[in-house]
Amino acid sequence: MGDKGRAHRLRRSVVVVSAAVVLVGLSGLVSPVAAHASTTASIDWACVSRPRGIEPTQDVYDMTPWVYQANKACTSTSTSTSTGTGTGTSTSTGGINNFYCAECDPPLDFTPNTPVMGSATGTPGDVTITPIFWKPPGYHFYGDTTYDGPDPNPDAYTQTLDSFFSNVAAADGSTTNVFSTMTEYYQQMTGGPRQYIKYDIHAGTPLTVTTPFPTATSTTGCTVSPQVPPAGPGPYTACVTNGAIMREISATIAANSLTANDANLYVMYLPYGVASCLDPGVAPVITQPPTGDPCSTNYFCGYHAGFNYNNTQQPVVYADIPYSTQYCFGPGQHNPNQYPNGSYAVDPAISTTTHEIIESITDWAGAWHDAAGNEMADECAWIYGSVLGYLYPSTTSPIGGYNQVINGGHYFIQTMFSNWAYAVGQGTASDLSTGGVVKGCIQRPIPPPVVGASAPTTVTSGQATLNGTVDPGGSTTTYVFQYGTSSSYGHTAPATPVSAGSGTAAVTASTVVSGLTPNTTYDVRLVATNGGGPIDGAMETFTTPPAPPTATTGAATSLTPTGATLNGTVNPGGAATTYVFQYGTSSSYGHTAPATPVSAGSGTTTVTASTAISGLTPSTTYDVRLVATNSVGTIDGAMETFTTPPAPPTAT
């Protein structure tokens, strides 16, 4: 969504700008057509072209969260809410939901066959970010902490942003900053595997364009009267619509021979005194709650969207970041101890920029959002977590607080949402008086557990002890074992995950499983889960030994005065097994049939045993039992009795 700010929470696919409205005057830039040339996915251009990730602003005088009434830009067609390969699920335990996003409905759902950014290169997350500073003559990107005109360095805003992009690119592949949180999400095309997003960001060459801002008419463009609303930065001298931003980005791509595909993200920055609106009209003054068309004067700090570049079926993915204010830091963040770059303008802009970048990468085409249409950054709007330090520490009033260190640069950036952390109730501390952990909101990936595999022990024909080790990595961690007769496992033990604690040293994991099949090879792995995700241990195998056979003596049938059929069942127990019947007129039996033992096979299921005997005495009671033998031992079935009928009378 957008970066939260004065008017409301974050982005929220909130704006219901119809494709027809958004594309007014684009002269073929967008067409609601089919497939993306660089993937096998089907692209919903109506979804892509609608501004979303709209990070609203919030008036410092009203801390009550507002609820978006507009429809979301993309509706969820998710078939999966788990981002893990093991036991991670979307079921959440513990913690609280984000107070500032009453309309959020976590976790994030995944829409299959929908690409994330970077799929054009074959590496999800491989994205080049190019900042575009729209700066006609007479406009400036002031970088100081006030809005009262020129400062000694009118380029401080752009210079700090340029440095930020360079630092983000230099730190790619790391797991220690907020951009690393994307790596638990993925794309999955039809019939293919999950392709996880990589933190693989490149900094494009910053561009400055000097095209004059378009003149608004009664039907096109937007206007804004000079004003200094509570959220600044007035006075406004120009207003730019989303349509104008798309046209300027398209022209900039063409003029600089840049590439339009889902591996390139263009971030448009507007200078001091320029408002931005999604639609033509008059930019409203801020009200509580916000009314009128969504504009930077009353509603948002930024948004992201996309369009079909010159009907090539290649997307231009972009974000709009109007000149920022301290109110884009959200409630509770209006003090100098949280501006590490010393600017009420550029520090909030960096958080807003991060918001839109991460949502663009994960959801430019609708791959990852919750059931209500909210995206990864929206879920954690205005949740920043703990401060790591201060650039200017003081015992009374520290200044320059930061919660991110990226390649040596210090920044104050909102947290991002993790399905893994949400599932186990982990997150960051709330800044609300109610306290508690805002589940799912993290500043950087939670260290995953480390799983060690060990061979099963005490293996019998029907039971085994499964073993391993788990290092929780400092976060509350649970574990289970998965086992079965193939690598798809199919069984989990114990039924309730076992706590491994939250320490930083390996602990023993163990459980006993029963009901196993004799003489059968099993695959087993240990799976540990914390807010860093479910981690699958290496697969171990074990084979249960054969079991002694089982023998069950049945009732004799087909009785005649001198003969009978003896019956029963045998389970070979996984080893080659034979059987015979023993019978006689006492419990010492004395007779065996057949003379040569009969094979019952070597399976693990029950088979029928039967043999016919003759030479019996009429009107006589016989004892009989079934005896089965394999390499493990000989088993006697229970004794049964039968009585032969009398012989027919003899004629004399």
Give a verbal description of the structure:
Strand 21 and strand 22 form a beta hairpin. Helix content is 9%, strand content 31%. The N terminus is likely disordered. The longest helix is centred in the middle third of the chain and has 18 residues. The protein contains 6 helices and 39 strands. Strands 1, 3, 6, 7, 10, 13 and 14 form a 7-stranded mixed sheet that branches. Strands 26, 27, 29, 30 and 31 form a 5-stranded antiparallel sheet that branches. Strands 34, 35, 37, 38 and 39 form a 5-stranded antiparallel sheet that branches. The chain is mainly beta.
Give a quick account of the main beta sheet: strands, pairing sense, barrel closure: 7 strands, mixed
Our measurement of the CA-to-CA distance between the termini, rounded to an integer number of angstroms, reads 110 Å
% residues in beta strands: 25-35%
Average pLDDT for all residues = 83
Question: Can you count the helices?
Answer: 6
Helical fraction: under 10%
**Got a strand count?**
39
Low-confidence stretches: 2-40, 58-73, 79-91, 146-150
Which overall shape is indicated by the principal axes computed on the Cα atoms? elongated
Could you tell me the radius of gyration in angstroms?
36 Å
